[in-house]
Amino acid sequence: MVGWTIAIVPVLLLVLYGTKAAVVPVEDLTRLLHQYEDQFLGRKVGGLPSDEGEDIDEGENIGTVGHPVEVHGWDSLLQDNIKLGQVSAVSVNLEDDPVIFHRGSVIWGVGSFDHNNKLGARDEPAIAEDAIVTVDKDNGKIKNSFGGGMFYMPHGLDVDHEGNIWVTDVGLHQVMKFTRGETKPSLVIGEKFVPGRDHQHFCKPTSTAVASNGLVFVADGYCNNRVAVFDSKGNHLQDLTGKWNVVHSVTLFEQEDVLCVADREGKRVECLGAGIKSPQLFGEKVTVIPNLGRVFALASRGTALLAVNGRGSYFDPPVRGVTVDLASDNQVVDTWGDELINPHDVAISRNGDSVYVVEIGPNAVRKFEVVAPQPDMY
Prior knowledge:
Order of helices and strands: HEHEEEHEEEEEEEEEEEEEEEEEEEEEEE
CATH superfamily: TolB, C-terminal domain
Structural class: mainly beta
Shape: globular
CATH topology: Neuraminidase
Radius of gyration: 20 Å
CATH architecture: 6 Propeller
Oligomer: single chain
Number of strands: 27
Largest sheet: 5 strands, mixed
CATH class: Mainly Beta
């Protein structure tokens, strides 16, 4: 289990309330870090041997990392051409364009659900606007959109390794898969408008993560606080459970066979064995990162974990971005995103040079470019 912990999280990029992340102590960190490249930051860890047994330049500073800088006005063309509702999710497609999920004219408020977690507006028409929108990564223009008349309360969206789009609708209590290029769902899991906790029902599912072998991890998040696992055809296999309070997001470190869970109201991230390569380790605790504030969403690439946090109590520090380098004694080496207001989801581009954050309240899509601290860094 020690090897797993080290493999997953040598570097974390966290949007949190400014407190230093605490991580379960790990032994022999330096010995095991050598085989991993920090793909998000675009560099190898300095001073550690490579896979071929050669030494990387020891002069490279292990704590010197790329800095996300917001591209102001990038979404101006998007805002000019569509009236965005509450933007609940963002992912990145195979062309590296962000794909967003928004609620159009529908607003999630205190009266949206009854005491049985059923949507109050289930007898009303679905959201008329196209809720799934693909945006050009360079200029912020709309490339295409679909989903009008299909959703009631959009929440999560994930684009898998084949370009398929997976969404969750907390009002429908369903998970849908849209095969790449298609605008009608090819797979629907869950019974429409019917909350529950069994092999065929969800209760306000929040997020998905899809492995390359077709396993689907669903954060069944507001009521059930579990992660339900399905095969590629939608057959339920098993559940991951923990002492969680609102499972709001999940993300996979597939190479390390680990799933990380955002426990929003528990104000922490917990990482567990995903069981993709090693079924016997399914659900085994790998690491816990507590005291992060209300963690709304996670994203991952290489060995970097990104998390966005929403507003907390009066005593919480302001929302901002924090970079934590676990290879430097968990030192906070950078902060960013000081202008974030109410972030709800985060995604990182497939080539690692951009970060996208969507917000509810401002109903905005923010783009950050990852700037190398040294001209020869890449």
